[in-house]
Amino acid sequence: MSIIADRMTTTRDKGIVVFLIGMRINRWWKIHKWLPVVLAMPRMLRELRARPDSGYLGGSLLPGLSVQYWDSAEALLAYASDRTGRHFPAWADFYKRVGKGSDVGIWHETYVVPAGAFETMYVNMPPSGLGRFAPLVPARGHLSRAQLRLGTRYPGTDPGAAVRTEAAAAGD
User: Fold this and answer.
1) What is the rounded CA–CA span in Å between residue 27 and residue 30?
2) Closest to 21 (Cα-Cα) out of 111, 95, 84, 98
3) 3-state SS of the chain: helix, strand, coil percent to 5?
4) In a 3-state reduction of DSSP, which class is residue 87?
5) Do residues 21 and 106 make contact, with C-beta atoms less than 8 angstroms apart?
6) DSSP class of 154
């Protein structure tokens, strides 16, 4: 991906669901317990990318962590409970292999973020994070500062000052 040499932000009229799911290997020598867990996530992500109607927008897979963006909580929950997809068998296999043992742990967190309750900023970056799935626009004017992008006036601040400062810096 090419670098965008500018300050960019995203625009999205809808809310978003951010889903974090991770694993922790507690006993490295028990590879037969944790390797199937490690291999399951890339398979599920491939399946989701192949199903554009799933509600999965995209994400990042890091060692021990998957950061996912979903169109809605309903879409995420529908995938989680779909017995024909890869998630359900992987979950059942985890419980069969690991159960309540402590050889490997998994966790997840789900954040349902309404429209207007999130903001983004990317400076000299290729499209990243939500910016890979939502329209990127220059962070100028009413989009120049986090406070303005959130549309919130914080006590003791003047949102217009950020716009005036930005305009002065740009020579407008």
Assistant:
1) 6
2) 111
3) 40, 25, 35
4) helix
5) yes
6) P
